[in-house]
Amino acid sequence: MPIRQLSETMINQIAAGEVIERPASVVKELVENALDAGAGKVEIVTAGGGLNLIRVTDDGSGIPEPELALAIARHCTSKLTEDIHDIRSLGFRGEALPSIGSVSRLSIRSRTATSDSAAEIGIEGGRVLPVRPAAANRGTTVEVRDLFFATPARLKFMKGERAESSATSDVVKRIAIAFPAVRFTLAGSDRSTLELPATDDSAEGSLRRVAQVMGADFPDNSIAIDAMREGVHLTGHVSIPSFTRANALQQYAYVNGRPVRDKLIAGAIRGAFADVLPRDRHAVTVLFLTLDPAIVDVNVHPAKADVRFRDPGLVRGLIVGAVRQALADSGIRAATTGAAGMMAAFRPGAASYGHGGPANGHRSYEASYHASGSAGFDPARSPQRPLDMGFEGFDQRGLRENEQAAFDAGPLASADARAGQSEAAETLLGAVLGAARAQVHENYIVAQTRDSLIIVDQHAAHERLVYEALKNALHSRAVPSQMLLLPEIVDLPEEDAERLAMHSETLARFGLGIERFGPGAVAVRETPSMLGETNVQQLVRDLADEIADNDTVETLKGRLDKIAATMACHGSVRSGRLLKAEEMNALLRQMEATPGSGTCNHGRPTYIELKLADIERLFGRR
């Protein structure tokens, strides 16, 4: 078959297949053009989910009449200098408008601030219409009708109107978070309207815009992030561990103001929250990365949603470290939504949880977690038995199950002694978790602060305390290792073997001793004692894959942390154990001093707070 030159229309339609996936892609490209033009107000109107109509109107700088023809020509742009590595705008490829015009009926009407009138140009399925005079205010209106009419096969892959409208709304929200000083409105054929009033570019204004998009609950249940490392600046907000979602749709990431869906950033967020969230729950995050455009490549894909960092390990380490530090520094906090759930349960007619409710939920989850997450770990047979690890600075006394017998309450104290205890308890009311008042169902501690009532799950809380102590002990010194009788030889691609050898010192700190064993192989001579019998071949290959992706060795650390979590569960105060008042108060004080103690090792809340105002509302006092 002879080689021939493709027509301009065919070239544009091929480009459209990469850039224009669905109506939401059109909205994204047009809104980005409006923002690059300095718009302070952007209005979007759709019909038929965007397949029948998309209209984007802005009050930006506009396009001069002589440049309208260039605006719809491929590879024509006003946003790119001679340096492809210095990209400081959202758009830069010069492909969006001609690609859209090749598969739809497109019209552009624009007027600059210095022009007395507007001008309009159109494209129908790739056929350019002549420029003509028009009436319009300052700015640009781009109208797209009958999307994909020129490529009807693409229409078969579109989802329903509601799904396409939802995707468009998500695109607008993602962009709007990065531009709080711009007013956005989105109106659809179902008469629903999304309005995002402009705030300002300050930190407070940015958070108000985030609240507009993610809900008013987010600011009260979030932690501010602000960190810098080697010229990379990370800012934003992440949710506290007890405020989560069932999916990752409310995780927003931006690189130099550009919304991205980057696997490295998503993986770093998962890693940062690994210790405090259940495996089926996701944090809510808004993170902004600001760095030199020369060290990030945004020209990876025509849709510009993917990016590549010159030093991915630096970026991942910054995100993980900053989020973990922020979680540790934020102290103990309960989600404000927990009180709403408690109040709903108290109201007349609330559904009963029955046998599968909260009273048994933690233990059933815990059982399934240990059944799946700690396969191969038997505390009785482990070379390093739980809570007998010999780490300095960790007090193991009083944690074993046979030392947790119910206390004998003994004779009641005298009236004077009880009065003295009451006075001491009063001083604790100002603490975050207050003073313990009672223990109910031999598992829940009821505490009082000056303005709230707090219920603590004693087993979940102490499990977290023991886990954090184990982790601190585990990572404060080299992990004990056991010598293999015969070294395990692992065959790997040469590049993987080289990467492992480069990280051998770090791996040794975690108890894994490896060394090169000829070309394309490593010899494993020691493994962490805590792992007991383990699949060395699979562990080494998993580490090699992780180092290739992220330049980290978190896989091994994660496995050791899982063992520590299992050991913490075996060594924590069990449900059904009676506690004295001083023990309950001691547990509350330890929770206040331990980072992450608002959730247990499995991500469930360790306590719920109900404000006095909420209690009074339940009884009709407010």
Automatic annotation (TrEMBL):
Matches recorded under SUPFAM superfamilies: ATPase domain of HSP90 chaperone/DNA topoisomerase II/histidine kinase, DNA mismatch repair protein MutL, Ribosomal protein S5 domain 2-like
Gene Ontology annotations of biological process type: mismatch repair
Record key words, sorted: DNA damage, DNA repair
A Gene Ontology cellular-component term: mismatch repair complex
Record-linked InterPro entries: DNA_mismatch_repair_CS, DNA_mismatch_repair_MutL, DNA_mismatch_S5_2-like, HATPase_C_sf, MutL/Mlh/PMS, MutL/Mlh/Pms-like, MutL_C, MutL_C_dimsub
DNA mismatch repair protein S5 domain ranges (all copies): 210-328
Pfam families, sorted: DNA_mis_repair, HATPase_c_3, MutL_C
GO MF terms, alphabetically ordered: ATP binding; ATP hydrolysis activity; ATP-dependent DNA damage sensor activity; mismatched DNA binding
PROSITE patterns: DNA_MISMATCH_REPAIR_1
The MutL C-terminal dimerisation domain, residue ranges: 436-579
SMART domains found in the cross-reference section: DNA_mis_repair, MutL_C
Function text: This protein is involved in the repair of mismatches in DNA. It is required for dam-dependent methyl-directed DNA mismatch repair. May act as a 'molecular matchmaker', a protein that promotes the formation of a stable complex between two or more DNA-binding proteins in an ATP-dependent manner without itself being part of a final effector complex.
NCBIfam families: mutl (TIGR00585), PRK00095.2-4 (NF000953)
Protein family according to the UniProt entry: Belongs to the DNA mismatch repair MutL/HexB family.
HAMAP family attached to this UniProt entry: DNA_mis_repair (MF_00149)
Protein name: DNA mismatch repair protein MutL
Organism of derivation: Mesorhizobium kowhaii
Lineage of the species this protein comes from: Bacteria, Pseudomonadati, Pseudomonadota, Alphaproteobacteria, Hyphomicrobiales
